[in-house]
Amino acid sequence: MTQEEMLRLVAANDWLWQQWWPALTGLSPDQARAEVGGSFPSLLATASHMVSAELTWQARCDGQHAAPPSAEEGIAALQPSWEALALRRQAWLEQHSPQTPVSYTHSGGHSTNSVEEIVLHLTSHAHFHRGQLATQFRLLGLKPPSVHFITFFRLPG
Length: 157
Description:
Pfam families: DinB. By secondary structure, this protein is mainly alpha-helical. It has helices spanning 3-25, 29-33, 43-61, 78-94, 115-139, 149-153; strands spanning 101-106, 109-114.
């Protein structure tokens, strides 16, 4: 993977998040917390997990430990944390090649992966859970935003 390809993949992931934030923050507290099933029981729990996972990966890249945002305040409170993360991640990725090794500690011990492996994992992880968000929206009788990377890649320019 080239630097340009890596940045484009992350840009697609971030663009999809930007499509989702209005739908997520437009949920009522009851809709956000409704237990409809999935890997996580509610839209709030799923979105919180997704943001926390992306924060954790960036913290690992930065050689730090993540402080996950609290889901107690609702989905709207997650958005500023994610927006700050997206800016920080973009700047970090622009300064590191896809082959740069990143060593970190996780629940299973210690690992080292390349930046491109981490980017593939975090975008795949977000995509997986975005599909679950779409299902959770539908179970609540709501129309979800697109979950498709190709929609981003079809944009002009």
